[in-house]
Every structure is written in C-alpha cells, then in structure tokens.
Amino acid sequence: RHRVNCPGRPPWWTLWLPGLLAGCGGEMSILDAAGSAARQQFWIWWAMLGVAVAVSLGVYALWFYTFRRREPPPRTPREERRIMLRWVLGGGIALPVASIIALLVFAAPTGRGMLPLPDDGAERIEVIAHQWWWEVRYPGEEGERDVVTANRLVMPAGEPVDFRLTSTDVIHAFWIPRLGGKRDMIPGRYSSVRLEADSPGVFGAQCAEYCGAQHTHMLLHVEALERGDYDAWLAERRPPPGPGEGFAEAKEAFGEHCAACHTVGGFAEELVDDDLEHDIRGPDLSDIGSRPTLGAGVLPMEEGAIAYWLQHHQTLKPGNRMPAHDHIDTETLQAIGAWLETLEP
Ligand code: CUA
Predict the structure, then answer these.
(1) Which reaction does it catalyse (predicted)?
(2) For residue 267, how far is the Cα from the chain centroid?
(3) Residue ranges of the alpha helices (H) in the chain?
(4) Which of 120, 229, 272, 295 is the most exposed place for a label (fewest CB within 10 A)?
(5) Is residue 165 lining ligand 1, measured as CB closer than 6 Å?
(6) What atom in ligand 1 is closest to the CA of residue 172?
(7) Cβ–ligand 1 contact at 164 (below 6 Å)
(8) How confident is the model over 142-163, as pLDDT tens digits?
(9) Is the previous residue joined to 16 through a cis bond, with omega within 30 degrees of 0?
(10) ipTM of the predicted structure?
(11) Measured in whole angstroms, how far is the alpha carbon of residue 63 from the centre of its chain?
C-alpha cells in the first residue's frame, strides 16, 4: 500500500477544524438550508447546540469547583441529604426535563409544517426505497401512465411538494439535508413529508438509515426546477417511450437477460417468456440515458458507462441485487449498454 509521507505531526487543532468547516457548506449540509423546512430545522439545530453548550459549561464549572474546594466544611447528615437532593432532583431531573420540554415546544411547529395537508393542490411525488436504489413515481391522472424514474428526483421549486414514502424490503430513510427531513421509509407502510425548495438548484440526498451492505451507495440526485421546466420535464416523459436506437441488436439479449426484472415503459414486458414469473425488481429503464448517475451514484452517466456497469457492477457495488453477468459475452453487454444509453425522452 502507498505510504503517506507526513513531515512531523500537524498541530492538534487542525484535526477538528477542517471537519468543523466542512460541515458549513456543500450539497449535503444542513447548515446551508435551501428550503423552509430545512431553515426551521437549522434553528432547532442551533437551539440544541446552544442548550447543550450551556449545560456542558455548567457541568465543567461544577467540576472545577470540586477541585478548588479541597476540604468540605463539616456537615450534618441532614444537610448532606439536602444538598444531595438539591443536585439530584434539581440538576439531574428538573433541569434536563425543563430543557427537553423547552426544545420540544420550540421544535413542534417545524414538525407540523412538514406534514402534508390533504387536497391543497400540492404536487405529489412517490418515492419507494429498494436495496439499494430509489424508485421515483409521478402518478398520472385518469388514463395517463405514471412517469417512473430511478435515483433522480425532479421537483418543482418555490412551492410545497408532498412526498409519499415507502420501502419494498427493509427500513430506509428519506433525507435531503438542504431541504429538510428526514423520514423513515418502512416496508408495508406509507409515511409522508412536505418539503419546499426556495429556488431551482441541485441538491444531494442520501439514504439515512443503515439498510445493508450498500447503504453508502444509495444516493439520490435531487433537482428543483421552475414550475414551467418541471411541467415540461414531466410532459416529455408521460407518453410511453419509443424503442430508442439499436433496439434490434439488443432486443433478444435484453429479453433473455434483463427483462425479467427491468422494464422499459412497459414494452419490454412483451419480450419476456410467459413462463417466467414477471416480477419487476430492478429500476424502470425508460429514461436511463438521461439520468445523471448509474447504480445510485456509483458512476457518472457518460458514454460507455452502462456497458462498463453491466460488466463490473458486482465489483463497483458488491452485493447489489443484479446478478453478475460473467456468462454473457462482452459484445452482447456492449450492445445492450449502447441501446440503453439512447433511452431518453
Ligand atoms: Cu437505504 Cu440505507
């Protein structure tokens, strides 16, 4: 292994300083709020820090006080008991209870503000967690198909959005640090959270509940768009996607190796042998060519990335639910990858 050549030891304070400053910025920082819920959580964070610092300083002060007074004055057992009660009941029970109640009263309105209101016309987006990727659904009106994508969440900016959350396997958690959250995603149950982005932008999000080996590789790319751009984004995905370019070369292989778990706007289902149990467990690939990353943030989407992913995904993201493709020759995987790259609206 490469040895890092370190000339002497850095001063002790440099160890925590970068960590402290790193917390102030970046696309995943709660201290850089970009939405109403996150802004309120930001103040809760500071209030909790303030209370924690005040309590710590009080405890340190008492601690130093005990050093200073070497010889305790003579006390009767009765006085001894009174002092004990004062500190145990006052400092050990009353003070923490009062601080926690004060924080609770301060924080309660934020929690209420993050609850969706029924039928007030807010945009609704469904997010379904899987080991280890995100399914994002935009339900259609009567007769329309749902727009389904993966590992990318596009939302309108400047208005509240209600997220309906669930999971298909284990508990995950939905968290967009700069917009607010987090909320657990529990299999068999729906939970909701209302978030709002102040203005258009790109935000990082990450599964916030340990959910197995690839919990770290469960990133969600969040984009807030102006209302008009959001509507256009959705409108171009609403009609069923066409077969893209190079489908003829990839069709047979896709039907044989991929279509039992992946769909492409529905039409890939026709490729699957009827005897096979058709159970969609992998991401819908309808607009895969337009997604910013592959494997929930493992690789950036660029030319040749899908074919590379198909060959090496068990090395890049060990244990992911897609079987290794060692039995399929490289040309076939490249043909499938090249075709999938053309799938964008
Ligand atoms: Cu999903 Cu951690």
Answers:
(1) 4 Fe(II)-[cytochrome c] + O2 + 8 H(+)(in) = 4 Fe(III)-[cytochrome c] + 2 H2O + 4 H(+)(out)
(2) 30
(3) 13-22, 36-68, 77-85, 95-113, 227-237, 247-257, 305-316, 330-341
(4) 120
(5) no
(6) 1
(7) no
(8) 888 889 999 999 999 999 999 9
(9) no
(10) 0.98
(11) 41
- What number does the ligand 1 atom closest to the CA of 131 have? 1
How far apart (Å, rounded) are the C-alpha atoms in residues 296 and 205?
11
Q: With a 6 A CB cut-off, is 214 part of the ligand 1 pocket?
A: no
Nearest by Cα to 155 from 200, 97, 110, 217: 200
pLDDT, mean of residues 83-95: 87
Give the count of beta carbons closer than 10 Å to the beta carbon of residue 273.
10
Alpha-carbon gap, residue 249 to 334, rounded angstroms: 10
Phi/psi for 164 (5° steps) reads: -105, 120
Distance CA 273, CA 83 (A): 80
Q: Which two tokens stand for residue 168?
A: 């298909």
Contact 280, 303 (CB under 8 A): no
Q: What domains appear along the chain, each with residue ranges and CATH number?
A: 23-67+114-235 (2.60.40.420), 247-341 (2.60.40.420)
Q: What's the rounded Cα separation, in Å, for the pair 296 and 319?
A: 14
How many other C-beta atoms can be found within 10 angstroms of the C-beta atom of residue 333?
Answer: 20
3-state secondary structure of 189: coil
User: pLDDT tens across 28-65, in order?
Assistant: 888 888 998 899 989 988 988 998 899 899 889 988 88
User: Are 293 and 220 within 8 A, CB to CB?
Assistant: no
3-state secondary structure of 47: helix
Q: Are strands 201-206 and 191-195 parallel, antiparallel or unpaired?
A: unpaired
Gap from CA of 170 to ligand 1 centroid (Å): 8
131-147 pLDDT, tens digit each: 999 999 999 888 888 89
Which atom of ligand 1 lies at the shortest distance from residue 167's CA? Answer: 1
Closest CA to 127 of 161, 99, 103, 163: 163
Would you state the structure tokens that stand for residue 116, as one six-digit string?
């969706």
